[in-house]
Design goal:
With about 325 residues, the protein is an alpha+beta fold. It has two domains: about 190 residues, no CATH class; about 110 residues, no CATH class. The chain has nine helices and eleven strands. A six-stranded mixed beta sheet has the order 6-7-2-1-9-10. A three-stranded antiparallel beta sheet has the order 5-8-11, with no helix packed on it. The protein has a two-stranded antiparallel ribbon with strand order 3-4. A hairpin with a 5-residue loop joins β9 and β10. α4 packs parallel to α7. The radius of gyration is 21 Å and the shape is elongated. The two termini are about 40 Å apart.
């Protein structure tokens, strides 16, 4: 059953399109420059060529609480400005006007002082928050777990790799071992990259992630009955090896967000938990979709569609690989 979880390809492509357009999060960053001065970056999602009706509002003690008119930057509608917040950001309120009427969320990254980043996630049901002088453990756990879930579900390349493993592996026991190996390995490099112990440029990492998807897709297509390949006999080796690379991708994203200085270990743990929850959700959707599809169109047609799906995965990954390779070669 697991080998034919190809339906996730359709779901992943649909999800990537939907998440990229309808659920693309907003992003607000307040970078401390010292002397009660902050550099502010605000990006809101694009909706059919126009900015989403959202507006970031800084605490009342900030001289310029709203930014200039946003301009399209290729990914969304962004604006930058400097503001002075006398007395700092502690206990001030950040609000996203219009968020309560949307279906997206906003990631807020802020620094109370230079180099000490914190993160908060605002949602339609809670479009504002009071900046704590030091976030509590529960705040860190909640925020970074959601960030992990969001990152995996907004990363179609990571999802396609997981989908490729689903198609490749033939039984649930082996699948659990492979997923566990992937979890352990990406946790290692995620932590090392987020803490600055590993500093590898992002473009080569992203290219290798695309290559990992191509490799697993190729292993599926070259499978011969009675002659299992190494990736099928010991898929945990493939999962562990490529999990190290995927962890660097997760770690670079987490580095940009920042880690709370007093709760670094908890934030890393919460982000990893979020990533795993996102992966498990994706796997559950794929297997449920496969069960429904098998009953609707029959196992014979499903088997024929599986090969088409694998070719599709490989083609998408090849396009990503060439595109990302061209970005730094």
């Amino acid at each position: 059953m697991i080998r034919a979880a190809f339906l996730g390809l359709i779901l992943s492509l649909w999800a990537a399109m939907a998440l990229a357009h309808a659920l693309q999060p907003g992003y607000l960053e307040l970078r401390a420059l010292g002397d009660d001065t902050w550099s502010v970056f605000w990006r809101k999602p694009d909706v059919q060529g126009k900015p989403m009706q959202l507006d970031a509002e800084l605490p009342e003690n900030c001289a310029q609480r709203r930014g200039p008119e946003a301009q399209f930057d290729g990914a969304g509608w962004s604006s930058r400005w400097l503001t002075t917040c006398v007395g700092g950001l502690d206990n001030g309120t950040i609000r996203i006007d219009g968020l309560e009427n949307s279906r997206t969320d906003v990631l807020v990254r802020y620094e109370l002082e230079p180099g000490r980043g914190q993160a908060w996630r605002l949602v339609p049901g809670a479009p504002a928050f009071d900046i704590p002088a030091a976030p509590g453990a529960l705040d860190v756990l909640r925020s970074y777990t959601f960030l992990g879930v969001e990152h995996i579900l907004l990363g179609p390349d990571h999802l396609l790799f997981v989908l490729s493993l689903l198609i490749l592996i033939g039984n649930i026991r082996t699948l659990i071992g492979a997923v566990t190996a992937f979890t352990v390995s990406h946790s290692l490099t995620l932590g090392a990259a987020a803490l600055g112990w590993l500093n590898i440029p992002g473009p080569p990492v992203e290219a290798i992630i695309a290559l990992s998807i191509m490799f697993v897709a190729s292993e599926v297509l070259h499978h011969e009955p009675g002659a299992p390949r190494l990736s099928q006999r010991a898929p945990w080796i493939v999962s562990f090896g490529f999990g190290l690379i995927h962890g660097l991708g997760f770690g670079s994203a987490l580095s940009e967000i920042g880690l709370p200085q007093g709760e670094i270990v908890l934030a890393l743990l919460a982000f990893n938990i979020g990533v795993e929850l996102g992966q498990l959700l994706f796997i559950a959707v794929c297997l449920a979709g496969w069960t429904i599809m098998r009953r609707v169109i029959g196992p014979g047609s499903v088997s024929q569609m599986k090969a088409t799906a694998v070719y599709g995965i490989g083609a998408i990954a090849a396009f990503w690989f060439v595109e990302r390779l061209a970005g730094f070669v």
